[in-house]
Amino acid sequence: MNDPRRRLLGSLVLLPIVAAGCATVAPPDGPEVAAAPALATTRWAGRFAVTLREPGVELREERANGRFLLESDGGSTQLELLSPLGQTMASATLDDGRAELVTSEGRRYAAESPELLTEQVLGWRMPIGDLPRWLRGGLDRPSETRQGRPVAGHEHGWAVRLDDWGDTGPARLELDWPATPTVGRRKVNLKLIVDEAS
After folding, report:
1. For 175-197, how does the pLDDT look when each residue is reduced to its tens digit (9 = 90+)?
2. N or C: which end of the chain has fewer CB within 10 A?
3. What is the Cα–Cα distance from 126 to 19, expressed in whole angstroms?
């Protein structure tokens, strides 16, 4: 990844984690679905893999993977992304609605919201404010449930899948954008595997 924007791919695809709270859509009228349990989880550690496919004359594919550490409590959230060898790739913070990202090269990006930050650096907005809720096992409008738990849905243009549930929520989260693939459009796939949650 020679382009600075590409080097930030692994970092910024996960930037939605740093947000705390965003507008949610009210569930549709109809049969009630059992909501995810209210969990007090504030810390997650695990692995991530992200794939970006860019259309064009030749299909380009970028991949990044590594480890993440996320702490989100109240109005402050901190995220650290590590390479597979344990080196810090980037760290991000959200405090009082202001988002900031610092890369391993010392580049610093800041914006009034995580949405604006991802747009500034990547050129498009990510599903901001939703990953902590998803990692706790919540979906606003689940399209599939299992044993009273939401396991799949579409939110903010992303297809969301929650799998391998444990006491603290799902241990696997997979996101695809756009939720409905379109020929000739950029595609992003993000997978998170939670190894520790408390």
Report:
1. 998 888 888 888 889 999 999 99
2. C
3. 11
Rounded-to-integer distance, Cα 94 and Cα 137, Å: 21
Residue 170's pLDDT is 94
CA 166 to chain CA centroid, Å, is: 19
Token pair belonging to 51 = 């794939």
Locate the domains of the chain by residue range.
4-197
Residues across the chain: 198
- What fold does the segment set 4-197 form as a domain? outer membrane lipoprotein receptor (LolB), chain A (2.50.20)
Separation in Å, CA 4 to CA 7, 40, 74, 118, 190: 5, 37, 32, 13, 20
Given a cut of 70, whether residue 157 has pLDDT beyond it is yes
